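User: Fold this; tokens only.

Assistant: Input:
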Amino acid sequence: MNILGIDTSGMISSCCVMENGKIIGEFNVNQKRTHSETLVPMIEELLNKLGLSPEEVDYYAVGKGPGSFTGLRIGMTVAKTLAMVFDKNIIGVSTLEAIAKGTFTEKKIIPLIDARGGRVYYGVYQWIDKDLRQLEKEDLIYFEDLLIDLDKKNEEYIFVGDVDSFKEEIFEKGYRYIENMSTNIASNICKIAYDKRDIATKDYLDLKPEYIRKSQAQRDLEK
């Protein structure tokens, strides 16, 4: 069984192939070219190097958000198109869950995606009985407000993901952080999709990005 994982939620274009629960290939590209320029050639080259055709992919897994609005649309469109053309199952995976998946600790894990302007997309996860559990609904918040909320709970947390802009605040509060956890999202998407493959679907139109907040265009229109 082969799973192709795709993520374009941030600056990095990422694709990965898992065979029977084992990662056999992954590409990550972080450059100025857009996802629309890099993603499809990356997928094609990765499959060619592995000697696989798109028909041999059994499941397509894609990061469904939150993250870059444009990036999510590109990744979702490519995954849905491939799944539809080759009549395969598809599954959407939370990008925050995928970031948290690569962190093994007894502490509660807070994956971050920088939403600019001092705001972050965040979630709260924890490993319980070898299973990564979501403890709170994913949301958008000013980072300083998030720290205030966490202080009230008086628990141990570790931050992962887009921590670069918030290192000083995290350190001052006595929490730990792990850098460079946003480069292997596609492989974690594959791992999550493998565990949740029973909920994969061929209802491609039902799968949509989860932005959490409205796009700037939507907000401008409402004004």
